[in-house]
Amino acid sequence: MKFRTEVRADATALARAVAEAIAELSERAANGTVTIALSGGSTPKKLYEALAAAPLYDRVVWKNLEFFFGDERSVPPEHPDSNYGMAAKALLTKISIAEPPHGRRAWRSGRV
Prior knowledge:
It contains 5 helices and 2 strands. By secondary structure, it is mainly α. Strands 1-2 form a two-stranded parallel sheet. Helix 1 (11-28) crosses helix 2 (42-51). The longest helix has 18 residues, at 11-28. It is globular, with a radius of gyration of 14 Å.
């Protein structure tokens, strides 16, 4: 895999560029899975919001994406510092993805 460095004008432009890249990867992963580690913070939140909104929402092949949490604080999902809570509000509750192995109840409670 070849890596490259790209500079964007601001966090919104960066989030949009990454969202475009994720959409493209999801389209090319016809028989595979794109694994994404979700994180907290204001820049990832902009990314999640971009993915969950038109026009990218309609472009992303959601069944080809697999989400994991890269970091999480030891707080309830409803807590303002919860990365899970932020990701759920900004992205996970707005997209159509398969239920996790532990079922919807665990996913919604943040215990996955």
